[in-house]
Amino acid sequence: MSSLEFDWPRALSAADNSAAVFELHRILLNGLRIALAGRGDICEAHLEDFAQDALMKVLSRVGDFQGRSKFTTWAHSIAVNVAFTELRRKRYRDISLDQFMEEGRHFAEAIADASIPEKDEARDHLVRTLQRAVAEKLSDKQRAIITAALAGQPFDQTVQFLGTNRNAAYKLLHDARRVLKSALIAEGISEETIRTAFAS
Amino acid sequence: MTPLNKAQLAGLTGMIAATRDEELNCTECASLAAEFIERQIAGLPMDGALAKVEQHLQICPECTEELQALKRILESEK
């Protein structure tokens, strides 16, 4: 069975789809072995679980496949998402939001007190404007999510903090970034200046 | 919270500068991942929604991690 030429949607939707399902499971399992190679926290049983969960998800969504890539690439993308989502969920199961909510309350001060390299008027204006916007225009949760991002916390961990889903957390962060960018632009600070002021 | 250092200031301003009014969320990025990676490996241009995937990846390390894993799979099939 060639995965390049095979009509996967039709085969998987057929009354007798057992051969196609078996082959797709094998392909997904092999793909996950490659995707997760070298990780010490993964054993064969995990790979089997991920492949099985991914297979079920692919089968339930065959009708969504639009043919804009090879079917197997589309299926691998679902398997990778299933595996990484589950790995992150286990890693961050017991994390609390409190630390970042607390740090977020002092975020504006942390900006105001930042050690500005090669301080000049433009950088100073940018930092003061940013500090004011953080203090006046962001919610507590927006300050917390930016604080977490700057601390290098994985985004899925932040999602756990907030007790929400990844898209809602992304929107919270996106809205915060837009508010800050608008505030800086309104003060005459160009996007180029924002990008390059502190870049190495 | 301790005062921000230069790297954190660079991270914050870089994040703000990369912001666009219209961005993909993680689910939308995942739905385009297969097409995006195939075109990237083939060296084809990204236009329309696929260009927004590149912008999303600048902001989202988790989606970046998943697309890199998908790329490893496809490159192993060459």
Keywords:
heterodimer; A: 200 residues; mainly alpha; Rna Polymerase Sigma Factor, Chain: A; Arc Repressor Mutant, subunit A; 2 domains; 11 helices; 0% strand; B: 78 residues; 72% helix; elongated
Mean pLDDT of chain B: 92
- Specify the number of helices of chain A: 11
Question: Radius of gyration of chain B in whole Å, from Cα?
Answer: 15 Å
Q: Which word captures the global form of chain A? A: elongated
The major sheet of chain A is characterized as: none
User: What is the beta-strand fraction of chain B?
Assistant: under 5%
Order of helices and strands of chain A: HHHHHHHHHHH
Provide structural commentary.
Chain A contains 11 helices and no strands. By secondary structure, chain A is mainly alpha-helical. Chain A folds into 2 domains: 8-91, Rna Polymerase Sigma Factor, Chain: A (Orthogonal Bundle), CATH 1.10.1740; 98-196, Arc Repressor Mutant, subunit A (Orthogonal Bundle), CATH 1.10.10. In chain A, α5 packs across α8 (140-150) and α9 packs across α10 (166-186). Chain A is elongated. The N and C termini of chain A lie far apart (52 Å). The model of chain A has no long low-confidence stretch (mean pLDDT 89). Chain B has 78 residues and is mostly helical. Chain B has a domain at 24-76. Helices cover 72% and strands 0% of the residues of chain B. Chain B is built from 4 helices and no strands. Chain B is elongated. Chains A and B meet through α2, α4, α6, α7 and α8 of A and α1, α2 and α4 of B.
